[in-house]
Design brief:
Blueprint: E1 2-4, E2 10-12, H1 19-31, H2 36-46, H3 51-63, H4 69-86, H5 91-104, H6 108-121, H7 126-139, H8 142-152, H9 163-176, H10 180-193, H11 198-210, H12 214-221, H13 234-248, H14 252-263, H15 271-286, H16 294-302, H17 312-324, H18 328-343, H19 349-369, H20 373-383, H21 394-410, H22 414-428, H23 433-443
Antiparallel strand pairs: 1-2
The structure holds fe (ii) ion.
């Protein structure tokens, strides 16, 4: 039998009772809810031969960018193929199975295209809408995110059950495109329609980050915990945004408190949690804040992920943890595995990105750790034009922008540091606290006049 899900899309189910947990799965995925996996499990318990359910299990696994979950995803794909052979599925469902197969084959870009084929015929399928954005996010495809949403905007009038979540995705894509005013208005409207949409809520926080308005950001997020407390580990990312706003205001004790009590309240090795943590610690150290032994816990976890090589963004943040803790052996192992990706790309899209710009950025991180700032600068500047392809948002990748600027300043490369800061200011449309403080350094006589050696470092006050 077939039935319609809450978006009006036909699904191949045998028991009507399974529609309830399946719709909960869809709602949960849109809202980044912690309950999503449970809802999908409940669906598959009632409906063990549900091909689309197994496919989503596979896709959700790949979104986590962990090497061991490739096996889980491959098993889910095999099961979905077997189920769809036994009981024919709809064309829409078969496109999801194709998407999973393409990604497992090293082609997430083709998985995105399969989602776009779904949306071309079923633009109201909010699962495909969100999945397209989620994969594009990992590929650093901001322009594609926006195009995808604006092609389907007519299908998400206010009577569509996912209209608020659609606006949340649209707000994020607009923000990444630098359309800050429109992003803010769209995100605010979206949250009215979908009060539990942490993604849309946080898209507006991105606007405040990019436009240097930390106080507005704190006001926006303050008192809205109900929008993200139901979330999976995405809730730690919202706390990360709050910490960044405090950092911009110079409230370093507050940042450290948020780090301990919220951002690292759950000591996972999920790459998104490690990215939140490492990038906060690195930003704090750029401000000469003593972060104590906080790197150690992150490095111990990262040392077990040196062979992941699923996503350049993840590898680079694991490396950041290892460099932060000066764990050279594990860092060398991780970078060596990234080099193997270069040698054995075989058309794998993620390996190609790890190869470039990933490796250059990794070499930059190691050089910065070794206080070889000129070398760090040259590696980071080589990575910089393609850094968006490592994935993540502008706000997340800003740690690499800061790292490049710090490298230039500490290497005594004043004109280069000025150019980088000027570009950063133009992109954001406003100077933030970080930018203001670096212009003070660059406009003063505190720039080192030559490449410093280790004995000079204590004398370089960039705060
Ligand atoms: Fe974010």
């Amino acid at each position: 039998m077939t039935d319609d899900d809450l978006f009006g899309c036909c699904v191949t189910l045998t028991d009507k009772a399974s529609l309830v947990p399946w719709n909960e799965t869809l709602r949960g995925f849109l809202a980044h809810s912690a309950s999503t996996a449970q809802s999908l499990g409940d669906t598959l318990k009632i409906e063990p031969d549900f091909a689309l359910g197994h496919t989503c299990r596979g896709l959700f696994s790949l979104l986590l960018a962990r090497r061991e979950l490739f096996d889980t995803a491959a098993q889910a794909h095999a099961k979905a193929v077997a189920c769809s052979t036994e009981n024919p599925v709809t064309k829409r469902e078969s496109l999801y199975i194709d998407a999973l197969g393409s990604w497992l084959n090293g082609k997430p870009g083709e998985a995105v295209q399969a989602m776009e084929q779904v949306l071309a015929k079923w633009p109201h399928d909010a699962l495909a809408m969100k999945m397209s954005q989620a994969i594009r996010f990992m590929l650093g495809d901001g322009p594609g995110m926006r195009r995808s949403l604006e092609r389907t905007v007519d299908a998400y009038r206010e009577d569509h059950p996912a209209s608020g979540y659609f606006m949340g995705c649209h707000a994020f894509a607009l923000e990444e495109a630098g359309e800050y005013r429109l992003a803010e208005a769209t995100g605010r409207k979206g949250l009215e329609l979908a009060p539990d949409d942490a993604w849309g809520l946080h898209a507006v926080a991105h606007v405040y980050d990019m436009t240097g308005r930390p106080q507005d950001g704190l006001s926006w997020l303050g008192g809205k915990e109900q929008a993200w407390e139901h979330c999976n580990n995405f809730r730690y990312h919202v706390w990360w945004h709050i910490a960044l706003m405090h950092l911009d205001l110079g409230n370093f004790d507050e940042v450290l408190a948020l780090y301990d009590e919220k951002i690292r309240s759950d000591k996972t090795d999920d790459y998104r949690d490690i990215a939140n943590a490492t990038s906060v610690l690195m930003r704090l150290e750029f401000e000469s804040v003593d972060v104590g032994n906080r790197w150690q816990e992150l490095a111990e976890l990262a040392a077990h992920r040196t062979g992941d090589n699923c996503l350049a963004f993840a590898d680079l943040h694991y490396l950041m943890a290892l460099c932060g803790n000066n764990d050279q052996e594990a860092a060398t192992l991780l970078v060596g595995n990234m080099e193997q990706c270069h040698n054995h790309r075989n058309g794998c899209e993620m390996s190609a990105i790890i190869s470039h710009p990933g490796l250059a950025a990794a070499n930059g991180l190691e050089a910065f750790r070794d206080q070889n700032f000129e070398n760090a600068y040259h590696n980071l500047i080589a990575a910089r034009p393609e850094m968006q392809f490592v994935g993540g948002s502008h706000a997340q990748r800003d740690v690499f922008e800061r790292l490049t600027i710090e490298s230039a300043i500490r290497a005594g490369l004043g004109p280069q540091a000025r150019n980088l800061l000027r570009e950063r200011d133009l992109h954001r449309g406003h100077r933030d606290g970080y930018s203001e403080s670096r212009w003070v350094v660059l406009d003063s006589n505190r720039m080192p006049s030559r490449v410093p050696d280790n004995n000079d470092l204590a004398a370089i006050d960039v705060a």
